[in-house]
Amino acid sequence: MDKSRFPNFYQMPIKERIEAVFERGLITEDDFQALKNQQQRLDIETADKMIENVIGVLGMPIGLGLNFSINKKDYVIPLAVEEPSIVAALSSAAKIARTGGGFQATSTDPILTGQIQVINIQNIEQARNNLLSRQDEILNLANSLHPRMVARGGGAIGFDIKTYPMKSFDGEMLIIDLHVNTMDAMGANLVNSMCESVASLIETITEGEVFLRILSNLTDQSLASASVKIPLQSLAIEGYEGERVRDGIIIASDFAHADPYRASTHNKGIMNGIDALAVATGNDWRAIEAGAHAYAARLGRYTALSKWSIGDDGDLVGHIELPIKVGIVGAQIESNPAVALNLRILNVASATELSSVMAAVGLAQNLSALKALATDGIQKGHMTLHARSVVKAANTPHDLFDQVLEKVIISGEIKVWKAREILEKLTHASLKVSAKKLVKQSVSDSIEGIGYGKVILLGEHSVVYNRHAIAVPAPLNIRVKIEDIKDQILLLIPSWGVEHQLDKDPNKRQSFEKPAGLILDKLGLTDRGMKIEVFSDIPRGMGLGGSAAIAVSIIKALNKHFDLKLKNEEINRMAFESEKIAHGNPSGIDNTMATFGFPLIYRTGDKPLVESLNINDPFSLVIGFSKQEGLTATTVKKVRDLWKKNTNVFEKIFDEIDALVIQSIQAIQNNDFELLGQLMNLNHGLLNTLQVSTPELERLIMIARESGALGAKLTGGGGGGAMIALCKDIDKTKSAIESEGYETLVVEISNP
Length: 752
Description:
The protein has 4 domains: 9-108 and 222-376, Alpha-Beta Complex (3-hydroxy-3-methylglutaryl-coenzyme A Reductase, Chain A, domain 2), CATH 3.90.770; 111-215, Alpha-Beta Plaits (2-Layer Sandwich), CATH 3.30.70.420; 443-612, Ribosomal Protein S5, domain 2; 619-749, GHMP kinase, C-terminal domain (Alpha-Beta Plaits). Helix content is 45%, strand content 21%. It is built from 27 helices and 21 strands. Helix 4 (86-98) crosses helix 15 (351-374), helix 20 packs across helix 21 (568-583) and helix 23 (632-645) packs across helix 24. The radius of gyration is 30 Å and the shape is globular.
């Protein structure tokens, strides 16, 4: 059976459509339950972490484009779109295309270009020659930031140099186009960071001034193309022979190539399908649009992206080529549960496969539009589908929907008022709709384990080397519920975009499977079937102890679910073993805080020092979140490598940090918060010498200090993540940080 073909799919009730998709093996049992209960949507809490000033979430219909065969593989295409006719048109075009063998599609390597503008150069030609002679040095510097991507075959691969006259000022500007293979990521942040990283070196080489450094959305080195051949008999419809339809499509295509006014609408139709798929898969449809339209004008005049012609055997032949740069991994994609589900339905293995599918979808949408124009016209089919939206807007009950729809179409008045009028007549004003309230169990009712987030007040990194640190709980936690299932162990962290089926073989486990698997192995639960669902308030990669809190909450949940009778000390030790897998050489402070959840003084060792921190006068901190995730394992390793090279120097730095921590304990007990703020500032200065801060964190810290903060420093591992500020005026500092586009959280520190 063809996996992309569902006879009479549009006529099925929604419940049966979901069941049909599940029965074809396109979604998992969890996906099926989520769709069935409408729990796959983006929640407001997750949305609030994605963009600024969130007040709600806009719902969009997710429809399935059916019948697609691309490169001899069947696809079901998830489409997020509000415009009627797009989904139906795509499915119809794909069905026609199958008769000629389906679509053939290809994509080039996923290359994204970043641009670096250099001005005030005394000798342009000399600068050009110097850049070319030191190309390897520049590329190596850019790639040094992303060694894992380079190891997978990606990274910066080369650059082009061009010059333009300065129109508003004297002189010339030199532009470096840095080409980066971003693999399966869209790569915007990656390329921007590479451009930033090489800016100083380029200034040195050119003896000029770097001005703009930013990616380009004209991704013409990441091209996707698709072609299709349609037999004449497949084009024929009532009243129109196949040859006539073919010729009409070609004539319409020629019009679009000749006239930019027609080309803009022609290309808009192509993007109808591509954009809908881009939105459904969490990709930047605006960037794709910008690149496509720029590409359409690359020869100096705006023209059509597709071309239709007569094949050697008289069949209709279509071809499309356009830049499509997309990703299937990344924070924006992985944070939205609906996007993750859509990607599973689509079943693509790489970003290049996704771009190929998008090209085929664009060509299919174009075929459908041109076929309609060449026959009955767009409006007839469009208005028929538009009528469904109209009838829905009239609040028509499901059991009367088809009747009202039919009568609205027959009337020719496809208006909401007309649908309401027909509905009233059908019901005779006597229709009574009863509704049953759905009783939904809240997550909290079934929670079995809780792990606490943390803030390191002073002493991060040095605590790994047997020095003191102060940690306080953050008003964030991780909760876990366990559900018995058959035959497998599922680990789900929806807010972090994590979904793993645990492999019983420890050597085959990846990512989050490893620490979770260790816990299950040690508890002898690997052979039990269960779903471990993790609900996190702690943002990923912000230095607030998320991984440790996950480990602790999972152990606590397993302890309760299976009645293991573990004590907190045992839970803490097991979580520490899990943290070793996640971070390599942790201090143990994160898992200790996650387990106990009270302010503490901590020092690592065979018998770690864990003392409650006595707080006489409660105080508050503002947490400011950078826009970059920081991986603790990465920064811990970085500091260890530096420590190995300069052990004596780094030991002195750790001693100085330790002295600050000791003074801070006394300052807190004496309620001397001015001194505590000064000590925090000094601690951050020493962390800078460890090279774990970032420009984003430094900006946040500067904003906090300029707004009157007594002290401000990074917290956690660094390399991104978050900072903390001790403030006289909490609201002033909070507002100052938020006015610059950052998110904040206020933490009140007191005794338990």
